[in-house]
Specification:
Blueprint: H1 12-20, H2 29-32, H3 53-57
């Protein structure tokens, strides 16, 4: 789906007339772009939802009786500095 195409040349009224003539009509790619023309594209990826550390970062599962859960990071950092570093794998989106 093409969301936005810049229209160049002419006055504003001529641009509006040109664009309104294209409403509800099929526009071919060859009519808009030339062969080997460089264009800027912005895309949005599909959302994958909320994931834990094992599926999000590929962290190894813990052994069977070590913690209350298996699919977590065993140590999220030292006592000082008293904050979690950004490099530590955490669950999220």
């Amino acid at each position: 789906h093409i969301k936005e195409i810049q229209v160049n040349g002419g006055t504003t009224a001529q641009k509006v007339d040109f664009v309104t003539g294209l409403f509800e009509k099929e526009v071919k790619v060859a009519d808009v772009f030339a062969q080997d023309e460089m264009i800027d594209v912005i895309g949005v990826t599909k959302g994958k939802g909320f994931h834990g550390v094992v599926s999000r970062w590929g962290v190894t599962r813990l052994v069977r009786k070590s913690h209350r859960g298996l699919r977590k990071v065993a140590c999220i950092g030292s006592w000082h500095p008293a904050r979690v570093q950004f490099q530590v794998p955490r669950s999220g989106q």
